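anyone else get weird line breaks when pasting these?? whatever heres mine. first is seq + tokens for prot A
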Amino acid sequence: MTPLINFVEFFIAAIESDDFEFAKKMILEDYAPVLKRDSSLVEKIDKVCVKAFNGKSITPPNPMQQMMSSMFGMGKK
């Protein structure tokens, strides 16, 4: 089985079990070399994570966006 197909199976299992930390570790550590084949993969996977894990993102928040959100009261609490 190819590493990318293996990743998809683990990612689906993480979503089904609602285990964000497992999904994040798998994406950012275990399968990072596989996902770097296409620069848009991590971005697309992050969108899936945000929807599947109630807004949790695998990418660190942009400090400038956080500051602007808190200044203008747009931050989620």
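and prot B, same format (seq, then tokens)
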Amino acid sequence: MNERDRIRQKRTLCQAEGYLELGMPHAALEVLERLRSNEFLGAHGMYLVGEALRSLERYHEALVPLSAAAGMAPEDVHIPLAMAWCFKRVGKLVQAVRTMEHALDYSPNHGLLHYNLACYLSLTGRRQRSLHHLSKALTLDPDYRLLIDDEPDFDPIRTDPGFVALTSIVV
């Protein structure tokens, strides 16, 4: 890619990010389509396409560009977080769990990965593993404690003695 194309790509990706921040996923897709036809999207562009589709609740469709982005940039934690979000919403919790576990291979000390994995494990009935990852998330960032009460994903384990003990610790 020549310098002119790199500048064009960067501007287009910034424009698409702006549209997504403004809650305008259709406009983001329209802008990204210009790059898509020229194969200039790259990992970040594919992620943005996935994010736009995810914003439109087109979860199955979003998984295609997100999977492509993950293959190009496996260390980018935003991609597996978005993928797992989509997997959950299309009823593929096992794949959401696998996606988070794979992301932790690259970023083992990322609290949000542990927190989301704890959520998905709770929904699949894996109490002990869920509690392990929730504990890890809280160790990495105690502020996740503020989210727990309103998180319906923890409803299956909310009465578990380990969950009660873990969430009742005053920080």
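btw re prot B: The first helix runs from residue 3 to 21. The mean pLDDT is 94.
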